[in-house]
Amino acid sequence: MTGPLWGGRFSRGPSEALAELSRSIQYDQRLWPHDIACTRAHAANLERAGLISPDDRAAIGVALDRAAAAFGDGAFAFNPADEDIHSALERYLTEELGDLGARIHAGRSRNDLVVTDFRLWLKAAIPALGEGVTALQEALKQQAEVHIDTLAPGYTHLQRAQPILLAHHLLAHAFALARDFDRLKGAFARADVSGLGAAAFAGTTLPLDPVGTAADLGFGAVFDNSADAVGARDFALEFLSAVAILATQLSRIGEEVVLWTSSEFGFATLDDAFATGSSIMPQKKNPDVAELVRAKSARVTGDLVHLLGVVKGLPMAYNRDLQEDKEPVFDAADSVALSLAALTGTLATLTFDVERLENAARGGSAGATDIAESLVRDGVPFRHAHEAVGKLVGVAAARGCDLAELTPEDLKAAHPKLHPSVLELLDARRSVAARASHGGTSPGQVAAQLERLGAVLDDQRRWLKETEPA
Ligand code: ARG
């Protein structure tokens, strides 16, 4: 058999352009382990239905083992007429087993086969990405533990705002990533539904049992409606959306690495293994990893938009457009897997300049809110307190000094209740310790966050263990 799988009713072979456009084997061959698993499960189903004998099924099993070994070694001999992984495997079985190989496609279609392969692929890919997310969170957690006492300037609008603990800042990223992990779990649950047995879209006249096939393949559920089974790609869209949001989060971490390692900030130094040089400027140490991670998020956003565009407006049930579902999904998964690994290494090996961070945390008017809140504790309405401290900041700015250098007279002039002792509130460490509200930056609150993150990571690892293939 050399022509396409559907040659029977045609008097001429496909044009070269059609064959070229149709071909997806270049990228869908990575589905091979799942196409083999689905074919094995389908053979068992055919045997249970009395459509092939136990010996037939055993022979198919042996041929599938041989095919798996060949794919595994990269030695599988593709044929120029192999349009996709499904036709390649069926051709192989027919060459190996003759008529028996030609029996395998009874009661199934490439439509239900491809969607089931794809779902199995996602069920393997999602936990792998979950491992990557967990490793990055672990790297952030370890840096937070090292820097549990390190002061850092906190920012809003990229303007120095209030002193914080560096650990507090790092943990913010780790908690955001916990939601990315959760979204991946949601995408896994939606992928965990077998489509095999839907046939082309309307089911089959043969006495097959999709529920048994789903169980054989380790799926948590089976399709309810065969047209939905072959026509739906919302599970892939959900995966892409989870991964696009994750990539966006990674880009934000990447951006901070770029800022922190610049001479202007000088808060951190990259390890040589995660930095690059310049081909012309010998002094340069560049954060290319962080920049590429920042850019990959654009690519993954594009992957999501790509598939949304493909699926939009498609009539029920299967349409060939759906063949274009795989490249964006593979691309997004590959891009994010790489980004996670590279960013984890970057973060784990980053050296923070504690002295520079703490000096930056102490400088300027970072304690202004603390002084205003002390007036509130003295019964002054917050708006008035804000106004008074704003005046103080103006005086300091005009004089080119820090708030701490203002005189008792300056304080009195701004507000009669401003006693010189309020200047002690400008001490950054004291200011941090005082922000002991829930989830705040005080050492006690940050220690509680570390503990909470530890429990979240334990839950994630438990889920990863549960989803390991048996
Ligand atoms: N390569 C195809 C895909 O990925 C398989 C299904 C082809 N089905 C069809 N009726 N032509 O969607």
Descriptive notes:
The chain has 470 residues and is mainly alpha-helical. The protein folds into 3 domains: 7-106, Fumarase C, Chain B, domain 1; 118-124 and 164-354 and 452-460, Up-down Bundle (Fumarase C, Chain A, domain 2), CATH 1.20.200; 362-434, Orthogonal Bundle (Ribonucleotide Reductase Protein R1, domain 1). Helix content is 62%, strand content 4%. The protein has a two-stranded antiparallel sheet. The protein is elongated. The chain starts with 15 loop residues before the first helix and ends with a helix. The mean pLDDT is 95.
List the helices and strands and how they pair.
Layout lengths: L15 H7 L2 H4 L3 H17 L5 H19 L12 H13 L1 H4 L7 H37 L4 E6 L2 E7 H26 L1 E2 L15 H7 L4 E2 L3 H6 L2 H27 L7 E2 L18 H24 L14 H23 L2 E2 L1 H9 L5 H10 L4 H18 L8 H7 L13 H7 L8 H25 L3
Parallel strand pairs: 3-4
Antiparallel strand pairs: 1-2, 5-6
Helix pairs in contact: 3-4, 3-7, 3-9, 4-5, 7-8, 7-13, 7-19, 8-11, 8-19, 11-12, 11-13, 12-13, 15-16
Bound molecules: arginine.
Arginine binds next to helix 7.
Ranges where pLDDT stays below 50 over 5 or more residues in a row are none
User: Number of helix segments?
Assistant: 19
**What would you report as the Rg, rounded to the nearest angstrom?**
30 Å
CATH architecture of the largest domain: Up-down Bundle
Major sheet = 2 strands, antiparallel
Q: What's the arrangement of strands in the largest beta sheet?
A: 1-2
Q: What's the level 1 CATH class of the largest domain?
A: Mainly Alpha
Which structural class should the secondary elements be placed in?
A: mainly alpha
The amount of beta strand, in percent, is under 5%
Order of helix and strand elements from N to C terminus = HHHHHHHEEHEHEHHEHHEHHHHHH
- Please state the average pLDDT score: 95
CATH superfamily of the largest domain: Fumarase/aspartase (Central domain)
Oligomer status: single chain
The CATH topology name of the largest domain reads Fumarase C, Chain A, domain 2
Structurally, the number of domains stands at: 3
What ligands does this structure carry?
A: arginine
> What share of the residues lie within helices?
55-70%
